[in-house]
Amino acid sequence: MQLTIYNDYRELSSHAADAIIDCIKNKPMAVICLASGDTPRLTCSLFVQKVLEEKIDLSHCTFIGLDEWVGIPPENEGSCHYFFHTYIFGPLKLSPTQFYLFDALSNNLAEQCRQMDKIIADKGGIDLMIVGAGMNGHIGFNEPGVSIKNYAHVIELDEITQAVGQKYFNTPVTISKGITLGLQHLLESKQVIMLANGTKKAPVIKKAMEETISTQFPATVMRMHNNSLMMTDEEAASLL
Fold first, then answer.
1. Stretch 182-188: mean pLDDT
2. Which of 88, 169, 209, 215 lies in the 20 to 30 Å Cα band around 1?
3. Which domains does the chain have, with CATH numbers?
4. Residues that are catalytic
């Protein structure tokens, strides 16, 4: 896994946005998987800005949402749906045929997983996956101890994830389960980029880069991928 350290969050986010644009320029029919949350927010905003400024044609590419909180309505500001529509799909006026998100209110979540797996397979796999790293090392909602063989699946959320996740909501919510792409999706993606910023992520990045590869700290699995990149700011890399 390659490591690139940037001066600050904005520089990191700008280069991450460029990576998405480069992928689409190289392959107009690219399949891009994105995480939501605090870390990729500026990347998404800068991506939109650059696309509009450079008049990049997105009409043939597809966007996939990495995960979603089970039971949270899409109009809730803490949902991944809300994030993607606010920061990417809405500003870029994308066609609904160009993006696929989990329906976390579905009565058949297993079918949601099967559908997402089929969509990705039918489109030839993920060309670029952009992820973050949770405080417990999770990627998406692939929590500590998850099977590395999983594709899309539903999972009980770790206590740390439930606690940290409250920051995205205006009022306390019950977020006990998540629906997510699996680590097999990550390993089969043609390129994977992990983003991390801030001093709070420094211990996470140190473990991801230096600990034995294990799903007990899923971020270490990034090192199994032969085309993976860790992009951090100086604060997140301060313990390396």
1. 98
2. 88
3. 2-226 (3.40.50.1360)
4. 67, 136, 138, 143
